């Protein structure tokens, strides 16, 4: 077996003078060298080994009740669910199929401590947060690859996958910097797709109120050792009120190749959305419009025997055109906003096992770049906006992020202890290094009861919008510092054949938190680092597998409930907060799946929300003062007839036609009925 020759000078600086010869290259536009200190790139180049490899271990989580052998990705090395000293929520394929929803955003409305605030329906645009954090503080991953947008968290869920493409969703509650890196501030959500073995074709058609049309086509194809999955989705609607129409599509490929070097994981996708943005960012101008495009690709390898290596490369581009006036612009209007972000990254994650436990280490390099006519610093020479006529980018900014990780997990009888840290360097911070440690502990009290506790620190960089956005009612701040937090949590887990319970308490202290604030109704919203905000929360989850408890003939199949409470305390009170102090205080979700008759089934979801904070109330586009959010109950229902290959369904969201707002003045949809059919064909 060949030995690897490693150049131990891999910590040297790499110098890039050009970037692919593209005329919109930031490196060319800035007309200077960009120096990047990065372990991850060089390590990736030497990590491809010729060693043969057994079938790789993969991070899998299933909400089953026999959890001992199930692996989760809550640490940097694989760990069984029963040993995790954190709360990890999982939504599996059967739950996705049964839920009365048509988008990922709607599905996440039911998840523990997850706050989804939708501006546009059916996945058009939504802000996501966990445990009372802001929409910029949750990291989004697709099959373990970071897809978070550096321009703004409003774009984090612009993903090239549809709901029908998703096999599983893993939600890690609380800070996860030492696992996933910067910006996993209050939580991380990993969306999992996975090619199936064999050949299969699937078509899913949905039609509903407001001329909703949703078409999903997907196919699995096995070509030797290569598993291929390809999916296409198109969705459109006339909108439930004026200027809420939308039209979008996405295409996604995921391939797995088992080779002598290891398992290669390739994914690529494209998403396009155009939509009426009624009052999205200010009710003063309700006739807004937006179009976004997302392009994404990644390549990952799992290899090694005694020491497991997982190097990865990824690229994400996001383009956005925002129109304050969809038609009939005001005389003072200077034109639309155009943005394009490029994120390029590479990472390496490694781990090995000894008698002392599992040791993991790795690094990530990430380059975040933006071109815009609004955000960034003035460019020496403007460049053309791709895909637009007679439009140019006049501003740009680039930053480099390097992170090193180390973690070790001990298994001492009934005690599991996992400790580690992330060391982080960001080019915007004058070459300063910051270290963010963490420690997780769990103890198996009995065969079914476990106590857990953890201590973790985390950070989030300001987005380009935080730094640079200036508008009629907003003013950015290029001198912002990163947010930092310290979180302590603890609780209990109960698992047996038919019952799963998790309950816990957390306390988070956030320093230099970034928010859009103003001192009175007359002042502009501007970004500031708040001095300190303390957050205290309680979480409870219970899931009962009724057939295991009462027998398979009982008509009720599953009962799930979760409740989360979050309370924020600030050290300053002389300002109005737009985001950081506007949080979901109480959230309660109860769902029950039951048999109606033979193969006919029903799934009910009941949700209660009570939100802190206020919003600017407008009447006929005129500001009239601040209004408190009102608590509300929502009921959703899906009835479906299902066989191994066919599912016919009818869904009703907001069954009792409740009128409510959950984000500013944006009126949410009333009752919305849709019908769908899903058919799967095995191909020879």
From TrEMBL:
Keywords: Cell outer membrane, Membrane, Receptor, Signal, TonB box, Transmembrane, Transmembrane beta strand, Transport. It comes from Sunxiuqinia dokdonensis. One of its GO terms (biological process) is siderophore transmembrane transport. Residues 247-655 form the TonB-dependent receptor-like beta-barrel domain. Belongs to the TonB-dependent receptor family. It is found in: Cell outer membrane. GO terms for molecular function: siderophore uptake transmembrane transporter activity. Pfam families: Plug, TonB_dep_Rec_b-barrel. Residues 83-188 form the TonB-dependent receptor plug domain. This is TonB-denpendent receptor.
